[in-house]
Design a protein that fits this description.
The chain is of the alpha/beta class and 615 residues long. It is built from 22 helices and 23 strands. A five-stranded parallel beta sheet has the order 3-2-1-4-15, covered by helices on one side.
Length: 615
């Protein structure tokens, strides 16, 4: 008698719902990790074909600033890259993005165009950083008039003022910001907004706040006031350097903090004449916020990184800074690497001429009156919806660092996309939450019985190194770009390392004859045909141990011959296509997945969707 007939519940794993776009999307680890969901494998394939302009446009649709981000993105895609599961180093995704930007040629005719007749709606953006520029990029082609108010004399926000020119040349900023200005954005430079209430009184249809996190954190210790002339706030100091107000610094410089801003400060100090630069860290290296590559570049330039030193006081003599006193700290680490206990083992005085504080940034909204209907939380930050980016006052939106605190450029771009969609919906008389869902579009890549429209051979090459300008040359001028980028030959080598994770192994249970050919050929044992049961039972029957629960298993419908199920561990699959080549019934197919992200242009006029596809 069956378990069901005896009245017992039959527990089994339900077939995977592959109509949910998240299933295949999260398999493309790089795209899933990217806040803007850039179609990374697609643009890498286009670079492999020498189609640099096409690769640039694929990038630009989602991340808007490929040339900028190809140099200074925080690269959340790379730690997620599946290549890192088969060898140590991921694909150089960020540097390949730069290749597309550097070699794109003239793409002006392919940029979105503003219609001759506008729709009569006016949007104000506060701050000319990446979030506001993205809002303008998305709304201008829909006929909006977009005005951006910028306090500084040049646009770009913290991209301009806080990222040194030796990492991000001004001409790259000018070019990509110019594309948006050329679409019709009015950028009012040197125009600080001192009152949101006064701006709202001008009758804008929507206001977007993308003013960043412009306030650097202080370090109030004994001696701070006396040594003030030589103690600098990191982001303010970098801005002064960028706009040529600061041109020199002392021989001996201490940087307090170990984030990316600290790395920019220490390297900039060397270019302003410092000879001895130390970055002072309270904790061990594993706890640093700076990216590994930022640390490596700083150390290559002879910056010393001193760990386990906690600032205690600024030392001054005759009204001038002479050094800092630090407590030397020991930390106990637990089994998972966390700090379980700390103790002070001594003190040390380190002489210096200047100190730069790079210990974080904060939002600052003194110019937003508190009687406008905008709620603020306990940290005095506006309450903002995490999806729509609308504040508690309808029609006022926030994005970038101004919305949820300091993050990075790619997050600001994604915030701009979401906010632009919300602004468009609000202006159309719809709720900003009433937005179109993202979709996953699948298309077979099969060209013949054993031929696919992508390169599915595995290339075991190591990660290609990016050439740098020599140490002897890089300090001669402040704006000499250190990284030289890939030339076409290096790019051609690196693109072959991509595993084409967006080419999905799609299974049709009705065609499977359970011959085990796919199981025999799979090089990583990611496929199993097993009896169904509870999730724990199914896992125990897999051919390879499941190691990553962040990615779900694919489980098929019951197979016709035995009622068993095909299970694929998406975490292990390397998208080689051997299962599809070996299958005698075409139950496996390699299908290109395209995540169709909905932008402002996709809301309302359906013709925009067709124009996007054709572009």
């Amino acid at each position: 008698m069956s378990a069901k007939a005896q009245g017992f519940a039959v527990r089994h794993v339900e077939p995977t719902d592959t109509t949910n776009p998240d299933h295949y999307h999260r398999v493309v680890d790089c795209q899933w990790a990217c806040p803007a969901h850039t179609d990374v494998p697609e643009y890498i394939r286009l670079i492999a074909q020498g189609r640099f302009a096409d690769a640039y446009m694929v990038n630009r649709e989602s991340n808007v600033f490929p040339g900028i981000l190809g140099r200074v993105c925080d690269r959340p895609c790379e730690p997620a890259c599946r290549r890192g599961r088969v060898e140590e180093k991921p694909v150089a995704i960020c540097r390949l993005k730069r290749v597309a930007a550097d070699l794109k040629g003239d793409i002006r005719a392919r940029l979105p165009a503003r219609p001759v007749a506008t729709n009569g709606r006016r949007v104000a953006c506060i701050g000319a950083g990446p979030a506001s520029l993205t809002v303008a990029n998305d709304l201008l082609p829909l006929g909006y008039d977009v005005t951006i108010f910028e306090a500084l004399s040049r646009p770009g926000g913290l991209m301009r003022s806080n990222i040194p020119a030796f990492r991000l040349p001004g001409e790259i900023l000018d070019e990509e910001i110019g594309m948006i200005a050329g679409m019709g954005a009015e950028i009012r430079l040197g125009h600080r907004v001192d009152s949101l209430g006064a701006l709202l009184a001008e009758g804008w249809d929507a206001v977007f706040v993308g003013s960043g996190a412009p306030k650097g954190k202080e370090l109030r210790l004994p001696g701070r006031e006396e040594g003030d002339a030589n103690i600098h706030i990191g982001i303010e100091w970098l801005e002064s350097v960028a706009f040529e107000h600061e041109k020199r610094i002392g021989d001996r410089v201490l940087i307090i903090g170990v984030g990316n801003t600290a790395m920019d400060c220490c390297r900039t100090s060397l270019r302003l004449g410092a000879r001895d630069v130390k970055v002072m860290a309270r904790k061990p290296r594993a706890f640093f916020k700076a990216s590994d590559w930022e640390l490596e570049d700083a150390e290559e330039e002879r910056v010393s990184i001193v760990v386990n030193h906690s600032p205690k006081a600024f030392l001054c003599s005759g009204g001038r800074l002479t050094g800092m006193r630090f407590e030397v700290v020991e930390h106990d680490l637990g089994a998972s690497g966390q700090i379980t206990a700390s103790r002070v083992t001594g003190e040390v005085d380190i002489p210096c001429d200047d100190v730069i504080l790079a210990i974080g940034q904060e939002n600052a909204f003194p110019w937003i009156e508190r009687d406008l209907g905008i709620d603020f939380d306990q940290w005095d930050v506006p309450v903002v919806d995490g999806v729509t980016h609308e504040s508690t006052r309808p029609g006022v939106f926030f994005g970038g660092d101004a919305a949820f605190g300091p993050k990075n450029i790619i997050w600001a771009v994604e915030h701009g996309h979401r906010a632009a969609t919300s602004i468009h919906l609000r202006c159309e008389g719809r709720e900003p939450s009433d937005r179109s869902p993202d979709r996953m579009e699948l298309k077979s890549t099969k060209m013949s019985i054993h031929e696919w429209s992508f390169s599915n051979s595995y290339d075991g090459a190591e990660r290609t190194l990016v050439p740098h300008i020599s140490l002897a040359e890089r300090f001669k001028l402040l704006d000499i770009e250190v990284e030289l980028g890939f030339d076409p030959q290096r790019a051609a080598r690196e693109v072959e390392r991509c595993l084409n994770c967006d080419i999905h192994t799609v299974f049709k249970a009705g065609l499977c004859i359970e011959c085990d050919a796919c199981l025999d050929i799979c090089p990583v044992d990611c496929l199993s045909i097993v009896a169904n049961g509870s999730e724990q039972e199914v896992e125990s029957r897999l051919r390879a141990t499941r190691g990553n629960r962040d990615q779900l298993l694919y489980v098929s419908e019951a197979l016709r011959q035995t009622g068993r199920v095909m299970v694929k561990d998406e975490n292990l699959c390397v998208h080689c296509g051997l299962c599809a080549e070996r299958c005698p019934t075409a139950a496996w197919d390699m299908q290109k997945g395209k995540l169709a992200v909905s932008y402002a242009a996709d809301e309302g006029d359906p013709s925009w969707k067709e124009r996007r596809k054709s572009a």
